[in-house]
Design goal:
- The chain is globular.
- Helices cover about 40% and strands about 20% of the residues.
- The structure holds adenosine-5'-diphosphate.
- Adenosine-5'-diphosphate binds next to β15, α14 and α17.
Length: about 475
């Protein structure tokens, strides 16, 4: 299919989901949200911070290269290193002290919702879904304020022994602190004076201080969990994310196994009273292979229907499941990386016993669905096109406040690069005898073992916002699918 035919299909897909989205009764979203505090470093900022600190101690820290941020000295050392080299870096902090120090001494320019569940629930509520039930185990007062003010967005809470659904600003625990990630952007060419030294930032980049306080748990409050069945009639699906925060061991003696088991209990309770409920997990990069394997083998496999991820995450998943060569080939950027991506998707679908796997890349998406997936391939493809429209709209304007805003994505042209890339996969599938080139160009291929959906996307050349677009793609395609079930 040529670009102009895809454009027509995009319009049809948008209209189609526009009329079916009201079929979705509600969606449950958990677990992770945080606040992103953003600071753009300007001339004089570093010199001002240095005034409060002992220069020699900062210098020592630069030599010792702290791997985590405990004190302002660790912070300044890593910031100076990142700025001097013009390199991006992400460094964890395990307490909230540095947040307080930075709030008082660096002061952020703006702050926004961060974390997959936070971003997804705000998006779905803004897409005018009937009901979005979000659950954040560490919902603090400050965090609650980052949820959009919308009547369809609610959080479970126990008030006087009763289970209630209220806006997050009425459901927070006043004793909880906030999880705040600092994103510190620095511009190219900025001159920094550091004692007797001076340097010029060679490249614009950012340092992220990611907050990992010890009280973070991917767990559900017992009382709320016992009432999960109350939600059965109110939701068609659940989007779960944040499992990457599970740690191997906790100070209280529990291990990842306890938290994995709690996560599975939550999934099973959601499914038990309504077998039609679909569960989607949004995967993300995680270094720790024990946890990565536990997420895939113990939480996703045989419990979850749908998995959303980007190409790097496909490689990571394949790697931990023992397909190292294929994993390498997916990220090799070689001529046939898209073929490996497709092969990888097929393996993940079958090995993890999924109903669908949706991979997003810049320029195209690949979705492989099991033959018993309750949505027909034609409709399923519309869901993917709709999600690409959501991504384009978000990249182009930076926000989606109402369902109608998604239509702005339609004005973004279909990516020629994406079309060229998927053509390579088409040629491979034709050679393998899987389908004809015409069938491939139609966007969906049926095989006896699974259905394959491939579409070019709409790529915004100079995007305003790219934060959380991957989450937006997966979540909107999933809810679109729920609307077609
Ligand atoms: P994130 O952390 O933003 O979710 P991901 O890598 O998971 O990052 O997802 C990014 C996805 O967003 C890409 O796979 C691509 O499909 C989409 N995307 C990125 N930039 C653009 C853009 N300029 N226009 C349209 N889609 C984009």
């Amino acid at each position: 299919m040529e670009a102009d035919e895809w454009e027509e299909r995009y319009i049809k897909a948008y209209d189609s989901i526009n009329s079916s989205i009201s079929n979705v009764k509600g969606v449950f979203v958990a677990y992770n949200s945080n606040i992103d505090a953003i600071k753009h470093i300007r001339a004089g900022d570093i010199e001002r911070l240095l005034k409060y600190l002992d220069l020699e101690k900062v210098q020592e820290k630069i030599y010792s290269y702290p791997r985590q941020i405990d004190t302002p000295y660790d912070f300044l050392a890593r910031l100076l290193i990142a700025m001097r080299d013009g390199k991006a870096a992400e460094v964890p902090t395990y307490s909230t002290d540095i947040h307080e120090w930075l709030t008082d001494n660096l002061v952020f320019d703006k702050a926004r919702m961060g974390g997959q569940a936070g971003i997804i629930s705000n998006l779905l509520a803004s897409m005018d879904l009937k009901q979005v039930i979000v659950y954040i185990p560490w919902l603090s007062r400050e965090q609650a304020e980052y949820f959009v003010e919308s009547e369809n967005l609610v959080h479970p809470v126990i008030h006087d022994g009763n289970f209630e659904l209220v806006h997050p600003t009425k459901a927070y625990n006043p004793n909880y602190k906030s999880k705040v990630n600092w994103i510190i952007e620095f511009p190219k060419g900025l001159e920094v004076k550091f004692g007797e030294d001076k340097f010029v930032v060679p490249r614009a980049n950012r340092l992220i201080i990611s907050s990992r306080p010890p009280w973070i748990r991917i767990d559900m409050n017992d009382e709320i969990q016992s009432h999960l069945t109350d939600l059965c009639g109110q939701i068609d699906g659940a989007i779960l994310s944040g499992y990457q925060m599970i740690k191997e061991e906790y100070e209280d003696g529990t291990t990842y196994k306890d938290h994995v088991s709690n996560s599975v209990d939550v999934i099973e309770s959601l499914k038990n009273c309504n077998p039609a409920v679909r569960i989607h997990v949004e995967f993300t990069s995680i270094q720790n292979k024990i946890i990565r394997s536990a997420i895939l083998n113990d939480i996703v496999k045989s419990h979850v229907h749908s998995l959303g991820l980007d190409t790097v995450e496909v490689a990571n998943a394949l790697n931990v499941l023992g397909h190292e060569e294929l994993a390498y080939s997916v990220i090799s950027k070689g001529e046939n990386a898209i073929v490996s991506l497709y092969e990888g998707a097929v393996r993940l679908l079958h090995e993890l016993e999924l109903e669908r796997i949706h991979i997003h890349s810049l320029g195209y998406y690949i979705c492989v669905a099991s033959t018993d997936c309750p949505v027909v391939p034609e409709d399923h493809l519309e869901c993917l096109l709709f999600s690409a429209c959501v991504a384009a709209s978000k990249a182009k304007r930076g926000f989606i406040r109402h369902f109608n805003d998604i239509a702005h994505g339609l004005d973004v042209p279909v990516s020629q690069k994406g079309l060229d890339e998927i053509e390579k996969l088409g040629i491979y599938l034709v050679r393998q005898g899987v389908c004809s080139l015409d069938e491939f160009r139609d966007g969906f291929i049926s095989t006896p073992h699974h259905n394959v959906l491939v579409n070019p996307t709409k790529v915004v050349e100079n995007p305003i916002g790219t934060v959380g677009i991957g989450d937006a793609i997966s979540a909107s395609a999933f809810v679109a699918m729920l609307s077609k079930m």
